[in-house]
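Lab notes, practical 5.
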Amino acid sequence: MLFLCIIWGFNFVIMKQGNGVFPPVLFAAYRFLLGAIVLFGLTFFKKIPLPGKRELKWYILCGLLQTTYFNIAVQISLNYISAGLTSVLTYSMPLFLSLMAHYFIPGEKLTTRKTGGILIGVLGLFLAMDIQFGETIWAPILALSSAITWALSSFIFKTKLQGCDTVQFTTWQMAAGAVGLFLYSFSFEHGQSHWSLMAVVYLLYSGILASALAFVIWSHILSKMKASKASISLLIVPVVGTLSGALFLKENLNAIALLGVILVLSGVWLVNTTGTARITLHLLTGKKNKC
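Output from the prediction step:
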């Protein structure tokens, strides 16, 4: 799990560097095309069947949300705000997913603890964004919208695709998303690619490690751990992204930005650890819980 978080956290630095040698969305398109090719090889090796028509339509929709729009928003944001801030805004996703689950998924109503976590997280978002608003207020908002589309895709997976093969899902949504990214890049981007050894390194890291391998690892972790524990562990990712941005890109890391980061992480942690307070109260008072 720690290895996965390091891969995904450091990838924000890699993506920002990749934007210097490729048009941003084209870089994402190459990344996910490479990842999809690797995963198609894996599905062939594991003899995973082709998806049915019912699943395929949801795979395509999730690919457009989670891969196409998500990466367009992230890649463009990285050109205007720091890698650390982008990672924090992106990984606020559980806050929005909790709200969707509250209204549309039975048995997942918001508790007082969850609501408090969301409010703390939103406060942290405003603190973190306020540091770097300037004249580019739209860039943090765009990065934040990537978290919303990621949450929506996760919501679709949870409500429409329960029981599907996770490798099959990842492969096809990634391939569909890559097509969308190429279409956007060819239609709206006009920059040139500057191929070099480091450009290839950026693509190999983002495409094979941070896309194909990372999602296979994530699927394996989900099969071995409770989803809530795995989700909590993902909070390490924006921490790694923030520290990597400061260490390798010399990005600013002042006290107020750190406070915002801490509040965001605290809010996401509270949302994903419901029940801890009840257990702690029971241990402290020795009273039985009637719920």
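Observations recorded by the TA: Residues 276-291 have pLDDT under 50 and may be disordered. The first helix runs from residue 2 to 18.
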